[in-house]
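[SOLVED] Predicted holo structure with zinc ion

Edit: marking solved, answer below. Original request kept for reference. I posted the sequence and ligand SMILES and asked for the 3D complex as structure tokens.
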Amino acid sequence: MIPRIGKHVAPFLAIVAFCYLYIELPGLAVGILVGIAILIVLLIVLIVVVVVLQGASERSDDGQLKVFSESYHVSRGRFRRTVRRSGGQLIALDLTAKGPKGANLTIDIGWFGAKTPKRVFIHSSGLHGVEGLSGSAIQLQWLKSRIRSIPADSAIVLVHALNPYGMAWRRRFNENNVDLNRNFRAAGEFAPAEIPYWIAVNALLNPATLPLPDCFYLRAAWLVLRHAEHRDATDAEQLRVCL
Ligand SMILES: [Zn+2]
């Protein structure tokens, strides 16, 4: 009971005070009323402005996020549709490797502008498969902002998912377990680089035959003992380039 009475005391006193003020100084009472009304209106306008601005910023954030896809196949479908809608030519290169649930995999190319151009701008995504989801978002965002006025002798080529297997399975490597971004040599052309430490660890990391029980950890420990102390800036730099 007590809190309920307490709740009504303040408004009751305010009304009594206002009535008293109105009888004694009617002009001031009306002035206070008008002031309160103006404050309420200003408050409402402020709330409306804040809500509208917030909505606008959320919408623009959404617009940015909408170009990100949750999987390779969703992303590829959106790339294909957007290339067609933007007037580009679509070329799909089939892979024999399959994605999850046996889904087919392709490298998709969106071609805009001259068929035999003198100048070409190429943008590719997904060399490291899993990173293709963000690369593809960049391509989609770019396509949605529309490709305008390409000179007659030029072309823009967007390549979607250089490593579709990795993108579909969410890994950096391709179907042959190759990290494409660390291996730009043609098939059969692989040779260890002329880096002292690479040559030292090559036999251990790239065995010529299938790995058997070959005391790997003992050999690795021996290599660490032999070579770890010789590290200097140049070799460390070389080794980082190599890896
Ligand atoms: Zn990468």
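OP edit: The pocket of zinc ion is lined by residues 128, 131, 181 (CB under 6 Å). Thanks to everyone who chimed in.
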